[in-house]
Design a protein that fits this description.
The protein has 462 residues and is mostly helical. It has 13 helices and three strands, in the order H-H-H-E-H-H-H-H-E-E-H-H-H-H-H-H.
Length: 462
Amino acid sequence: MVTSQINLFKAVVSTQSTGDDFAAQLQHLRVQDAEEYNMVKIKLETDVQVLEQQLQAMRATYQLNSEKLDYNFQVLKKRDEENTITKSQQKRKITRLQDTLNNLKSKFAKQEAHYRDENQQLADVYKRITDQFKELQKKSKHFQATDTKKFIDVWVMNEEEAMELAKKVMDEDSIVHCQQLGLDWSVPETAKVLEGEGRPLLAGEPPKQASTSSLKSARAAVEDVMRAASEAGSGQLEFSRSTMGGEGKGHKFSPVLIKSVLELLCAEADFLVEKKLVHLLAPLEHDERLLMKLDSIFKAIGVETEDDINRLTEYFLATVEDNPDQANLIHPNEVLKAIRLFVADSVSPNKVTTHKPAVEFDSTAPARDSGNDAGYWQALANILPKSHELKWDALLEGLQKYHGVLAQRAKLIEDTDKLQNQNSELRMLLQQYIGSRVNQDLQIPPTHTIPSEVLRDYAIDS
């Protein structure tokens, strides 16, 4: 009976507990459904508001676009009216400009006649100014020649003074090596500047070791070539490298070949000649016209001597492929390349330049090359080699130390002499003190207090 009651009680408790759980779950589901309902409601309300806002924005955009289109239509209509008015104005303007053009043509005819007369007047003024310029050019040449002479005089004066000082330095260097250091002395390499090595050429000085052909001007060489070529005839331009030399003295190539090279140069390098000069040379004969053109071309590319012409000829020769010993003139299209190579090689620092005398100053001649002046004076200033300078410095340092030792020794000798004089005076006083008669009256004479060694030394010295 008790057991059945207990089981009944447990069943009731279990049923009640299950009912409570189901009630709690039902309440939880109700709360959850309410929250979801609220969220969906809020979302839908938000979407409705957004759509209403978009609808209002689209209506506003539509209204704005409608107003813009109406405005643009009115603007285009206004522009069309303005263009119509402008078109009529332009037509009237064209008519007016046509009248102006006719008036300007008549004025142009009058101005042309006026300027023709003015041009003639200016030509006369130009001629007068040209004459004045030529006179001024003569004065300029005179002053340039004077300045060149002054430069040479100052150069020579300073050079003589520098040479004299350099020779004194060499003599002193010889004395330092032979007498002071006891070394063998020979003229250093830097002293070659005293013999003129590396000395720049002054205006009017001939180049050293210049041959007769290099002293001949380019114009004279061309005249000789033209004369020799006329005597020899046209000949054959093809030649052998083993027989390059011409018959003329100083010619490296035959006159016929050189003349052909010069004619090719004039034909392909005529842009180096002024057009005004070309018109002036038209009435002249072929040879004279060729000479005048060559003068202008030679000045432009820096050809001054016969050697320059020979070097220029080498650039105009092309070797035959089948026979390397044969050579012909280069193709006309390669002339400019040959001129560039010649000019590039001519401006190299290894080329020896010649200068005209200052008395016969030529304004068209190249200026004196002063690039080696600083090196020449620097070589004179540094004529003593670095090794010799180091020896001089070492000798100077040794002599200064020796002088210091001698000065110290002289001071010691002077101090010794002073001490000897003082010693002599003290000896005399001691002798008077010992030999005085007063010592006999004393109970203890000084001789009894002085050590016997001192008395003995004093007796020896006495």
